[in-house]
């Protein structure tokens, strides 16, 4: 069973806004404790949560942040618009076999137990949709590609850091495709400029 320290620290780590303000010493401990208790329905007293916050290993967290900053510093960030996500409710092998007929120049694929998701340019949607009956299409997406240093493969928290940065801007991530050292994030086209700015801030 997790201790109250572990629960509080995990809650703090998953909220980048809290961690930034904590490092800047802008947070009132009592107010933060009340927020964590209410937001995460913690079964602990106010004093216990305040004590956990004060024990948080901030120096260790700062070191982890420094490692992540070094990884992102030399990363390559690019964007692509006019993307559609096609969800195909057919067996995976059947989907792969049929897609070979199309020879699409660019395509991202994610497979589940009984569904396949394809992320393709809007111009390819019609060709794909003609091959399958059970499909669902989501238009209006954009892709952010983040290619980081090879050492990112052995570094924890890289994907979480990217997702947290985008979440700070109140942007919903529609899809994630990870093939380290490349991370692909899909957001609504209306959010691409703001999301791109947030990701670029990691490289500064």
Question: Which terms would index this structure?
Answer:
204 residues, alpha+beta, Alpha-Beta Plaits, 3 domains, 6 strands
Would you kindly provide a written description of the structure presented here, covering whatever features stand out?
The mean pLDDT is 89. Strand 5 and strand 6 (182-188) form a beta hairpin. The chain has 3 domains: 4-56; 70-78 and 143-201, ACT domain (Alpha-Beta Plaits, 2-Layer Sandwich); 82-141, 2-Layer Sandwich (Alpha-Beta Plaits), CATH 3.30.70.120. The protein is elongated, with a radius of gyration of 21 Å. Helix 1 crosses helix 4, helix 3 packs across helix 4 (46-55) and helix 8 crosses helix 9 (192-201). The chain is built from 9 helices and 6 strands. The protein is an alpha+beta fold and 204 residues long. The protein has a 6-stranded antiparallel sheet, with helices on one face.
